Amino acid sequence: MANYKPDLSRQNKFIPINFAEQILPGTFEYALCYIVENKLDLSGFDAWYNNDKTGAAAYPPEVMLKVILLGYAHGLISSRRIAKACETNILFMSVSGDIQPHYTSIAGFVAKMHEQIEPLFTQVLMICDEEGLIGRNMFAIDGCKLKSNASKEWSGTFDELGRKKAKLERASKRIIERHQAQDGLSEELVTQDLKQKEKLDKSADKITAFLATHEEKTGSKGKPVKSNITDPDSAKMTTSKGTIQGYNGIAINDDKHQIILQAQAWGSVGEQQTLQPAVEQLKRQLEKLNSDKFSHKQAIKFTADSGFNSEANLEFMAQSGFDTYIADNQFRKRNPLFKESETYETEQEKRRLKRSKGKPRLFTSDDFHYDEATQTCHCPAGNEMWRSGINVKSYNQEYTRFCGYLKDCKVCPLQQQCMRKPPIKTGRQVQFKSDESRKKISYIDQMKVKIDSPIGRRQYSKRLGCIEPVFGNIMVNKGMNKLTLRGQTKVNAQWQLYCLVHNIEKLQNTMH
């Protein structure tokens, strides 16, 4: 019979430990400790403390920074889990020098990091630049959606929140009415109902206070958008796993070693609106880096997917100095390589095809009969339309707009092919470019020509391998897939800490 040595993996053992020997060269914790202790200027944290003569000694900022980044690198996002690891995990003990900060101290340190995160992020970028990890050949921008520390149940427009408040008040009132109608209720039921009423009143008061102290948010078209009571800066976002209440973590990286050069989290701002501030911040970061040894004869290439495509963004990028390649949502359809394949269709396109299944194609402006000389227009059914606007400007283009008469559109036999919904206040509207605008090529049309060229397709094809692995590493490999703070400022700092972990990991192989 075989005789094996016993498994003592669950047995406690008292042994002498040298903490310095636990941090091995080539590991993430080795790179982290070396950078924090020898490369970073942490003097900015000194302004947080004024306890040299009175009060207890504070936890050293370098220790706090090391245990937080190490915790994030191991997917320990909660301050409680990081504090527990400092008490029980030999690696965290070694990194912290056996200092065991309380979880409230860790949470408070992270919450105040927005005051110091920008200079720290830049200092790490400078180290990456010194090690030759930034190539300045191609930059790529993209975003990932992160769940925030807020419930989506507390989201809604002001009108929706007002209705929810009224519903809560009615439920609270029904409890009182039931008590008045039934005097013989047991003491246990009365106590239970009163607790429920207190909860309902508290929720209603929370909505009342929010509506009184905040202004309603509006979208790009001026329509009201949903606000969140718990975290007003966050937004409802649709992901492949459903709808979440969260933020969009935007990052711009370099293609040589996938170093993140710019990082910022956005809540209730559309992805298109994040491009211009992100590029402006990127330029400020590049000015701080050592650019003397790089003499580019050609502009740095800049790529982005269709989520960032708009006339305003393309006009901005045309003046930015970058050689830009931004796809539109019809880019793959125009590419013959993807003509017969459905593998590369976006989720948005799949949903659109599913919604439109069995429905007739809606008329476009090409189906209307427009006479520019007489400035008249007739709809596909032959009805005359009235001119509702001339020289209407949109995205640097001028249009002439026509509108159908409501009485004609309501009884039109082609209504289902012309309008998505039956007309209520106005008939079908259609607009045509002016002769001058037709001669002027828009930035969107210029980008279509550029990105459909062989060179454009080749350059844009590099975007996927440049930026997507960054989010895979942060969210999947490292487990940094949600946020523990609230508010744009604090969330932005935590997102930059996540990206800082990624950049330090890239430096890991250069420090032995």
From TrEMBL:
Residues 379-507 form the Transposase DDE domain. Residues 24-110 form the Transposase InsH N-terminal domain. Residues 227-237 have a biased composition (Polar residues). InterPro entries: Tnp_DDE_dom, Transposase_InsH_N. It holds the Pfam family DUF772. Residues 216-237 are annotated as: Disordered. This is Transposase. It comes from Pseudoalteromonas maricaloris.
